[in-house]
Amino acid sequence: KVEEYSLISDLFEGTLRSDVRCTSCGNVSTTCESFFDLSLEIPKEPELKRVQRERGDNALPEAPQPSMFSMITNFVGLTSQPLALETLLHTFCTSSDLNNANQYRCEACKQKVDASKVLSLTRLPEVLCIHI
């Protein structure tokens, strides 16, 4: 099979890895998919505190000085502290729980179970487009 050359893919395509661990049997399901942009959410205070606990109190950098982005997020009440882009990326890649209505169907257990999901960027593109 001959691969076609694509300038868009060469510049903007990256790879996102998803690891989902079943809390019942411990089975880990790994999938990799291509992406051309990332959509990052602005975390609210409880989510920021959870990420800080998981990564360590000093792991999340603060924005060096107030920016237009941080002033807008403060104004609309999303967060009371300036946020660095690195913090949003940490939040994106931090473990999240799949439970209640969002349970995971485990391949090994053959049933819906609680699970934890971790995302990681395994290959970054030359140009990373981020939506906030």
Automatic annotation (TrEMBL):
One of its GO terms (molecular function) is cysteine-type deubiquitinase activity. GO terms for biological process: protein deubiquitination. Pfam families: UCH_1 (PF13423). GO terms for cellular component: cytosol; nucleus. Signal peptide: none annotated. Residues 1-132 form the USP domain. This is USP domain-containing protein.
